Amino acid sequence: MNVWRDSSLTNLKNLISQDYEAREIEGGNIVDFGYEESIDGWEQGFKFVKENNAHWNINVISIIPLRETETMAIISATMVAQGKSLETANMFFQTFKKNNINEWKLVRSYIEARIPNISTNNALSN
Q: b vs e for 6-34, b when ≥16 Cβ sit within 10 Å of the residue's Cβ?
């Protein structure tokens, strides 16, 4: 979470596995991407946050152990700019896996992008 709060591209690069695979759904469109595309996207996002004096409102919805060496985090994230929360949020289903030197790395993500913010609030209250 500190990676997002600090908008730290360096720390993000250390967190994501080189073998990272992701799928993002936005408005019914499906985009699959890997490590390099993810870093490019986060670089743009972090730049926007810094230039607009914004921050992330991050809610951890659930942490689910999948296997001994894998865990899934379900997270909602909304950007707050100029004191106002955006009307949309992103839902992240992120799978972390321990590598051969016992470090947790982000290996897979499924992302529902730009969904109405009310959906994430309802998910949190259930």
A: ebeeeebeebbbeebebebeeeeeeeebe
Domains of the chain: 2-125 (3.10.450.50)
- How many angstroms from the chain centroid is the CA of residue 75? 7
pLDDT tier at 125, thresholds 50, 70, 90: very low
End-to-end CA distance of the chain: 22
pTM across the whole model: 0.85
- Sole residue written with tokens 């379900």: 74
To which H or E segment does residue 11 belong?
A: helix 9-15
Q: What percent of the chain has pLDDT over 70?
A: 92
- CA 77 to CA 100: how far, in whole Å? 30
